[in-house]
Amino acid sequence: MWMTGADAIIYALKEEGIKAVFGLPGGGVLPLYDALYQSELLHILMRHEQGAVHAADGYARATGDVGVCLATSGPGATNLVTGLATAHLDSIPLVAITGNVPRSVSGTDAFQEADIFSITQAVTKHNYRVQTAGALLRALRHGFHIARTGRPGPVLIDVPKDILTEKHDYAYPNTLDLPGYHPESIELDDLPRAAGALLTARRPVFYVGGGVKDPVAIQILQRLAETYGIPVTTTLMGLGSFPPDHPLFLGMPGMHGTYCANMALSNTDCLVAVGTRFDDRVTGKTAAFARDAFVIHLDIDAAEMGKIRVPDVSLTVDARRGLEKLATTMGNDAATKNAPRGHLTSAWIRQLSQWRSDHSPTFNTGDSGLLPQQVIQTLDQLADDERIIVTGVGQHQMWAAQHCRVRHPRRFLTSGGLGTMGFGLPAAIGAQVAYPDHQVIGIDGDGSLQMTLQELASVAQYALPIKLIVINNAAYGMVRQWQQLFFDQRFSHSQLPATPDFVQLAQSYGIPGFRIETADHVASILEEALAQDGPVLVDCQVKHDEGVFPMVPPGASLSEMWEEEPKC
């Protein structure tokens, strides 16, 4: 069947099971948009290419499937870079398709020409510069496979405009030809040693990251924890992989983690890291992290083994198969057949329970002004159990992680590794498109929101029922907090006195707006906002100088965390 390259892309997207794409038209992709015009494929028109890639990212995080975005050449393509880097660091499967200038003028600095292939090599899992019509379908077939297999990640496919108009015989490849790509490499030689160490440990901890999202893996994790009395802490990216109200759950570890989780990681004698990469925001001072522990690292990416913390045992495998094998090996161990397991860890569990009881996170509700923690706790209580929380980046992100109970995987979406301000609103769009009947709640800060604020137009255009809660402290709050603590209160350009009236701004897009200024009205206004059928923005005018605590100061170990703001 003969067709243009543009039509071939549309057909290929259908073959890959893609139901929605996010993007903006432009000269370099006009043939592709002309093909979209005649297609049934859902296209969501965004207002900036960064919004398009974040929306595709949000779609992918919520579904686990590949997110797709489209952009034109030159500035359209370069505007994708931040979103690609965001997805790359958080292992999110994306395919970005960009148009470029025709081959006849490539390399001449033609209008809106940019070497996006070279520009994005450092922020993608793989990328392609399509040079022939015959290579287009092969790049698409391979690109989607690479994006979704092994450790997921973003792939960029750059297509010259003349290839989009050139006709050729459509034959989507049935086979893959990737001799250098081995995403299913498994190394389990040390599995008996890992099982033995875990069975004899007295202070074991599961340290679980964003690589544990598979429902079966989560079930096995919970069964292992309960069978052998092993407490669990989950990173920011791993929230939802263990029940938040489970007695063995320690909360989130790291810079703004719980006292209990951080002390557990500081005192454990056997650490099982699953689907996580020992990020500096979790470990604090690396040399002091789990200093006396036998470390077992189970991860799909062999490149992560020993990159930050050298493990005693490396298990290169995906979380589901790795946990299955670990559970089987532990169950077959003779020691577990002859003696109950609970006596080894009972003292450890009592110690953790005591830490949890004595050091539960608190905030001073007697202070003047509306506290962001009150807003988020109330929101958590009023929202649907199946809600999807999407955040921007900043103080509000940490408050949301601390005070929202995340009961399921893929229900707390946030930019972890890159910490991309502006991620929240467009990612919420992607999540809402993926699940139109789910309650999607965006929690954002006034600073973060203003980086992609124009995407309110897309929310309005498609009547997406996103509930956007703005934690408004008229500042880049996390920057301000660091300036207060570590720069002698020199608040250099972190205040935002010209913050817009978000209620009026939302209303200008045809979106209802609410404002909360006092604690007395938090519950009633949030309840009214959540009951709306369509999109809503709630501007929460919170206390300007409220900080995020607990906090591990820079260069300190987890055991040196501050539970409250230090007194000067």
- The tally of structural domains comes to 3
In the CATH hierarchy, what is the superfamily of the largest domain? Thiamin diphosphate (ThDP)-binding fold, Pyr/PP domains
Q: How large is the radius of gyration?
A: 25 Å
* Widest sheet, order of strands: 3-2-4-5-7-6
Please tell me the overall pLDDT. Answer: 95
Helix content: 25-40%
In whole angstroms, the N-to-C terminal distance is 75 Å
Can you identify the CATH class of the largest domain?
Answer: Alpha Beta
Features of this protein?
568 residues, alpha/beta, Rossmann fold, six-stranded parallel beta sheet, 23 helices
Explain this structure to me?
The chain is of the alpha/beta class and 568 residues long. It folds into 3 domains: 2-169, Rossmann fold (3-Layer(aba) Sandwich), CATH 3.40.50; 191-358, TPP-binding domain (Rossmann fold, 3-Layer(aba) Sandwich); 372-551, 3-Layer(aba) Sandwich (Rossmann fold). The chain has 23 helices and 19 strands. The strands form 4 sheets. A 6-stranded parallel β-sheet has the order 3-2-4-5-7-6, with helices on both faces. The longest helix has 17 residues, at 342-358. The protein is globular. The termini are far apart.
